[in-house]
Amino acid sequence: APEEKARGITISTAHVEYETENRHYAHVDCPGHADYVKNMITGAAQMDGAILVVNAADGPMPQTREHILLGRQVGIPAMVVFLNKVDQVDDEELLELVEMEVRELLSAYDFPGDDIPIIAGSALAAMEGRDPEIGEEKIKELMAAVDEYIPQPARAVDQPFLMPIEDVFSISGRGTVVTGRVERGVVNVGDELEIVGIKDTKKTTCTGVEMFRKLLDRGEAGDNIGALLRGIDRDGVERGQVLCKPKSVTPHTKFEAEVYILNKEEGGRHTPFFANYR
User: Is 204 exposed, middle or buried (0-12, 13-18, 19+ CB in 10 A)?
Assistant: First the structure.
């Protein structure tokens, strides 16, 4: 997006796939900028693990703390750290200081800061094919750490299908596509589904499943998919609703929730909430 390019940061969550010798990864690149933490939450709620990227020259930023906190709140089981831009750091002691700071920050939010693998390298060097000792070799070392340290997730494929809708697209001549990560169950092409939440419940049929631009017969728990829906207008569905097996989910207007409010030091509220606060 132009606004991202202008600022050199990630705003919306981007999905890519790649493989190591041991695993096939769906990688969600999350926003690193404080203004866009809302998009980070959407991405984080879907993760089996995370790579926390910290600028080795600057050390942890305020949003690094927010990302770690969000990881804890949405239940990301494990993190690996990549200290990026090491080519901008001449002092070995400074690098050790940043690593210590990151470990302390992780420990403060109940991650095992002392045990988490921290790899220092340069993503740009890897992209440009130079200085392999800080570039390509370090990326391979990072992925080896991810393979080893992040546990194999259990997938709930035998439960009723449910997918929170993250985004909605209109494809001319084909219809409306909703994207998201399948939370549980399986969806097959031809399955009848319901769209639940925010508005009145709607019935639809899945006429296509796509993952990383490949057409598939089905999507299952853990997959990031796009589902093509019959008879649904682009305006008839929105982010925040869920796609599910008919009659398996009921919407509620009243529920109990656990809420974490950022305090003043964390860049959040300066004043308290009161009864009937809006």
Answer: buried
Give the CA diameter of the chain. Answer: 61
Close Cβ partners of 20 (under 8 Å, ≥ 6 residues apart): 143, 144, 146, 147
CATH code, 155-278: 2.40.30.10
Q: What is the pLDDT at residue 79?
A: 93
Q: Do 15 and 26 meet the contact criterion of CB atoms below 8 Å apart?
A: yes
Residue among 72, 74, 53 at smallest CA distance from 64: 53
Helices 62-73 + 92-108 axis angle, to 10: 40
Which residues lie closer than 8 Å to 42 by C-beta, 6 or more apart? 13, 166, 239
Phi, psi of 97 (to 5 degrees): -65, -45
Q: CA 180, CA 271: separation in Å to the nearest integer?
A: 35
Query: Is the confidence at residue 145, as pLDDT, over 90?
Result: yes
The mean pLDDT value of the chain amounts to 85
Higher pLDDT, 164 or 259: 164
**What residue segments make up the domains of the chain, in order of their start?**
2-149, 155-278
Collect all residues with Cβ–Cβ distance below 8 Å to 271 and sequence separation of at least 6.
none
